[in-house]
Design goal:
alpha+beta, five-stranded mixed sheet, 10 helices, about 65% helix, rod-shaped
Length: about 350
């Protein structure tokens, strides 16, 4: 399209400017060099830019009729600067302008006054600044897109970490209970089969709960348009169910609530529940504990969760496995803290302090 406009427009201009050089084949060649080269402007902006500079400068010094020959140069300069090739763009502007002025002087071409020369220079400067404005706009748009992309990646990473923690807590807790109850059922199956029934019932209940929670988490991973899970997000309102399931695994759990219980933010509520769940799981799976005490303190500014068990008496600080690391990450994500120490009797004590207000960044 630009080629047609350049050739047809230049021939039309030649008919109205009889004092200029008549149109010929060389004029057509110069017009084709400038316009056809624009086809490679996106892939090779610098060579195309200088091709338009040379063809336009030769055209003007040959004194062909003024016409749309300048269009190719304007498009090339505008695109080069907008794509970030600022030095090349401004160099091309200066080269064409200086070459035109000095070339006319060297060839003895007259007809342009100082006013016309300054006007042409002003137009070139305006062209450069317009290209700079569009370049700045393009860079701001690209920076905004990059920022949004990085923010999306960060949020996706945080969501993957949260889901991984959920999977770990759900699987570890329920599988531990199933393992303990299965061991009990196998031990009693031959000698006291009637006492193995409660253990099998506990296995059924634990596996059912695990499947429900896993189905909910997998639904999030699919990111489908299916209806939201009917099961509510787990929180401290599920504490009684957790204590009941853990007690069926042979761990006697006592619950103490201090302060005024009240609704909590969803993230904090879930984190408190998972910390208690993981603490009880560790007591069943690793500590061989027979009892545990869960204390929940509703304060004005923080929720304090403490879980003590009477597991094996050991000296020194407890070894931090994936369970404790995951609990600490949950607390830290909410701006809180989590410590794991030994009780005076040698059991494990988990204390999590979770602020009720968002942490200031």
């Amino acid at each position: 399209m630009i080629t047609v406009v350049a050739v047809v427009g230049s021939f039309g201009a030649s008919r109205g400017e009889t004092d200029r050089r008549a149109a010929d084949w060389f004029m057509v060649v110069l017009l084709l060099i400038g316009s056809v080269s624009l086809y490679w402007l996106r892939s090779r902006p610098i060579p195309v830019l200088w091709a338009t500079v040379v063809s336009t400068l030769v055209y003007m010094l040959m004194q062909y009729a003024y016409g749309p020959v300048i269009f190719s140069f304007v498009i090339a300069v505008f695109t080069a600067i907008r794509l970030g090739h600022r030095a090349a763009g401004w160099s091309a502007i200066v080269t064409l302008y200086a070459g035109h002025v000095l070339g006319r002087i060297a060839l003895g071409i007259h007809g342009q006054g100082i006013y016309q020369i300054l006007l042409v220079g002003t137009c070139f400067v305006v062209l450069g600044f317009l290209a700079e404005l569009f370049r700045g706009h393009r860079e701001r748009v690209m920076a905004a897109k990059q920022t949004r992309r990085e923010e999306e990646l960060r949020k996706a990473g945080e969501e993957r970490l949260r889901i991984a923690q959920e999977l770990h807590d759900v699987v570890a807790h329920h599988i531990s209970l199933i393992n303990v109850q299965a061991s009990t059922a196998l031990h009693l199956a031959d000698r006291q089969p009637e006492q193995a029934v409660p253990a099998l019932a506990a296995i059924k209940e634990a596996s059912k709960e695990a499947l429900v929670e896993l189905r909910s988490i997998v639904g999030i991973l699919r990111q489908s348009d299916e209806a939201a899970p009917r099961q509510p997000v787990v929180g401290l309102d599920h504490l009684d169910s957790l204590v009941s399931r853990t007690s069926m695994a042979g761990l006697e759990v006592h619950t103490l609530i201090h302060g005024d219980p009240r609704p909590l933010p969803t993230g904090l509520d879930r984190a408190a529940f998972r910390i208690i769940q993981e603490s009880l799981t560790n007591a069943v799976r690793h500590a061989s504990a027979s009892s545990a005490t869960v204390r929940i303190q509703y304060g004005e500014r923080a929720l304090v969760v403490q879980v003590d068990d009477d597991g094996r008496s050991l000296l020194g600080p407890p070894t931090e496995g994936n369970g404790i690391i995951g609990m600490r990450e949950r607390a830290t994500a909410l701006g809180g803290t989590l410590t794991a120490t030994r009780t005076p009797a040698g059991g494990l004590r988990i204390v999590a302090q979770l602020p009720l207000e968002p942490a200031e960044v």
